[in-house]
Amino acid sequence: MQLLKDRICRDGKVKEGNVLKVDSFLNHQIDVSLLCEIGKEFKRIFGDCGVTKILTVEASGIGIACVAAQFFNVPVLFAKKNQTKNISGDVYTRSVESFTHGRSYDIIVSREFLKPEDRVLIIDDFLARGSALLGLVGLVQDAGAQLVGAGIVIEKGFQEGGALVRARGVRVESLAVIESMDPRTGIVFR
């Protein structure tokens, strides 16, 4: 998606340690017009899959998933990173490791909202090492629901996550795949 790639090049900041900061438009301050174009593109890609629910993980994926859900006319379910009083009882849980935060945590979804009859599209902002995405895939499998695919805004193609998830038979469609990035030389897309 050229619009997204142009925005990453213009406003993204490459930091040491393979960190790409896109917080000025994607995952802290949000450019809603850009998200609308991203949502339309996910609808174009997955529109014939019979999606009944969009699943993401808190927090950065929620805004993207909500805007995309408008084009599918389906609800968004987000996996919480902490057990709360509102989610008690019967839940699906998976442990994931966060590349960005450098720690592991459990993601939790109430069984009330993820059912075997659901056709689930996962939406997330980044795919790097694949742990969060595999955790979401596991939640869908635990529910006995049908996973139609994963829509990723930015994939770090130089890290193993995309290949790892695709090797498990998951359809992954990324709007911008970064081949390499360096604070001095910038970003190279596939």
Brief rundown of the structure:
The protein has five helices and ten strands; from the N terminus they run αββαβαββββαβαββ. The chain has helices spanning 2-11, 32-46, 60-72, 131-143, 161-167, and strands at residues 13-15, 19-21, 53-57, 76-79, 91-98, 103-110, 119-127, 146-156, 172-182, 186-189. The strands form three sheets. A six-stranded mixed β-sheet has the order 4-3-7-8-9-10, sandwiched between helices. The protein has a two-stranded antiparallel ribbon with strand order 1-2.
Q: Which features characterize this protein?
A:
31% helix, Pur/Pyrimidine_PRTase, two-stranded antiparallel sheet, alpha/beta, globular, Rossmann fold, 190 residues, 10 strands
Provide a descriptive summary of the structure in words.
This protein is α/β, with parallel strands linked by helices and 190 residues long. It has a single domain (2-189), classed as 3-Layer(aba) Sandwich (Rossmann fold). It has helices spanning 2-11, 32-46, 60-72, 131-143, 161-167, and strands at residues 13-15, 19-21, 53-57, 76-79, 91-98, 103-110, 119-127, 146-156, 172-182, 186-189. A 6-stranded mixed β-sheet has the order 4-3-7-8-9-10, sandwiched between helices. A two-stranded antiparallel sheet has the order 1-2. A hairpin with a 3-residue loop joins strand 9 (172-182) and strand 10 (186-189). The longest helix has 15 residues, at 32-46. The radius of gyration is 16 Å and the shape is globular. It starts with a helix and ends with a strand.
